[in-house]
Design a protein that fits this description.
Layout (H helix, E strand, L loop, with lengths): L2 H24 L27 H15 L5 H34 L8 H33 L4
Helix pairs in contact: 1-2, 1-4, 2-3, 3-4
C-alpha cells in the first residue's frame, strides 16, 4: 500500500475510532447506526445525518488497513486485526443487543415501580454497554499503537 494512502487511512481510522470510543465512554449516544434508538423518544435528534457513518467508517478503514498493509511488522498487523475485532464488536453489540433492549424498554407501559423484567433489561443493557465501551476504547488504543509502531 502506498505510504500516503496508508497515512490518510490511519488518520481517518484514528479520528473515527476516537470519536466512537469517546461517545461510548463519555456521551449519551453511540455514533453507529441505531444510536438514535437508544435515546428516549423526546430526546431523539431530528437530523443525525453523518453521525450514523462514524462507526462503519472506522470499521471500514480498519479492515482496509488490516488487509492492505502486508509488508509491515507482525505487531502492526496484529494491532490492526485487534482494531477490526473491537470495532466490529462495538457495531454488533449496538445493533444486536442495546438497541433491541431499548425498544423493549420503551414498549413497556409506565408504572410507579419498575417491574422485575424491566430491572433485568436495564441490568443487561448496562452490561452490554460496558462491553461495547471496553471494545471501543480498546480498538482506539490498538489503532493508536498501530499508527505509532515502526516499519521493519
Amino acid at each position: 500500500m502506498n505510504r500516503t494512502i496508508e497515512s490518510a487511512l490511519r488518520f481517518v481510522n484514528l479520528t473515527t475510532s476516537g470519536l466512537l470510543a469517546g461517545s461510548l465512554g463519555f456521551g449519551d449516544a453511540a455514533l453507529v447506526p441505531g444510536w438514535k434508538e437508544e435515546l428516549p423518544q423526546k430526546m431523539r435528534p431530528i437530523d443525525s445525518g453523518y453521525f450514523d457513518a462514524i462507526g462503519p467508517v472506522a470499521l471500514g478503514t480498519a479492515v482496509t488497513l488490516a488487509i492492505g498493509t502486508r509488508g509491515d511488522s507482525a505487531m502492526k498487523r496484529v494491532l490492526d486485526a485487534a482494531t477490526v475485532i473491537g470495532l466490529a464488536g462495538v457495531l454488533a453489540s449496538t445493533i444486536m443487543v442495546t438497541v433491541p433492549i431499548n425498544r423493549e424498554l420503551e414498549g413497556q407501559p409506565a408504572t410507579d415501580y419498575p417491574s422485575e423484567k424491566s430491572q433485568s433489561l436495564v441490568k443487561n443493557w448496562s452490561r452490554a454497554h460496558a462491553v461495547r465501551t471496553t471494545l471501543g476504547i480498546g480498538a482506539f488504543i490498538c489503532a493508536a499503537a498501530a499508527s505509532v509502531s515502526r516499519k521493519r
